[in-house]
Design a protein that fits this description.
By secondary structure, the chain is an all-alpha fold. Among the domains are: 113-198, Leucine-rich Repeat Variant (Alpha Horseshoe), CATH 1.25.10.10; 205-299. The chain has helices at 4-14, 19-26, 29-42, 47-64, 67-76, 85-91, 97-108, 114-118, 126-134, 142-149, 154-167, 173-182, 186-197, 206-217, 220-230, 236-250, 254-265, 270-286, 290-299, 305-314, 320-332, 336-345, 353-362, 369-374, 381-393, 409-425. Helix 7 runs parallel beside helix 9 (126-134) and helix 11 packs parallel to helix 13. The longest helix is centred in the N-terminal third of the chain and has 18 residues, at 47-64. It starts with a helix and ends with a helix. The model is unreliable at 1-14 (pLDDT under 50).
Length: 427
Amino acid sequence: MKFLFPLGLVFFTACASSPAMRAAERGDRAALAETVAAEGRTGALSNREAAALARAVAAREIRIAEGPEAVERVHDAVACGHELDAALAARSETHDDAGAEAALVRLDAGRLGLANARSSLGDTNAHWRALGTRALVRDEDHKARILAILDPEPGVRRRALRAARDAHDETDLPALADAARVDPNPMNRSEAVRAIAALPPIPDDRVANLLRDLWAAGDDGLREDIALAWSSSAIWGAGGRQALRVVLASDHGPAAVEAAAAVLRRSDAGDEMANLAIARFANSIEQGALPTRLQALARAPLDRPVLLGAVRKAAETDVPNIRIAALARLAEEKDARAIDQLERFSQPGSRVEDRARLALANAGDRRVQLWIEQDLTAEAPDKRLAAATALAALRVAGRAAGLLADADPRVRMRAACTILLAARRCR
């Protein structure tokens, strides 16, 4: 890390005086678009240069946005918060909702001290109070955490639950169980289950049974988190294994798929449990609701011959989305026939062209690059962003630099993060 930072600093300084960089810093989208297009035609714009422009554009978006849009820009920056830490730090100096959210991003990334965050505990602004609440991780914070779990503001409750996950205090269990059961916000109910899974081991099956009760009334999202909790090291040997056995034998849907994946990740699952998990995967790939089949295709470990066979069978179905998902998994295995079929589905006018192109990009197949680049000027913002994602998968994220001058600030910000993350992966 000591080597990478100076290297990035030298690079950023080297291109700081370029016309493109000056346009990015002052928000001159027309000039930026023209310069990037010219450099793109000659191949002069590298991925690293594009990343430097992306950093400048994203930092400016964070700085100039106001009101609810400013909060959205900060949330868009979460994935690339490491690269944008300086911009987030500057934004957190403003005492508004976006400033608090920027500080929360920095706190979760370990870039803001707990003491600094705790100073906001008594703030009247709910966003800043949530920041202070997120720092309630000490043993002596138990009572304050419990009160915060009952706060009227859902954002404060969420950060209290995340603090409980980090605190590892078994005396939080009753409050966490209540939150998982009755909090009106589904995200908070999931956070409560995750916090329960992170508690120190309890020798009896009390926690596993508590999660069984939550399972009975929970939605698919909560059940997926419960399945993961049962497979955790703290609960697996104290009733979690048996609870997962029941789910694999009798349940269907996304949570059962997640249970199967959780079991197959355990090296101590044993043949009986592993076979149940494989059977659940195969059944979910073959039949059921479309979302469940797609999830099973995405999660199935292909080192299991039965599941590889199930995916091959799904690649012959007449259901377009299922077929593309199956071909995408086979393309990961460098299956030449699957790659050829995906190229056919990638052609303009196909109903599944976007998914097929992304699958080929993830497989490193450059035959679709031209079609993907044409999508950078698509009318739909999400299609333009999907093109940036696919180009990043092909390791040519710099080709998406034109989106840094997009008319839509959401596209500019998310494209910038995509380019920055691609540069991080290439280090």
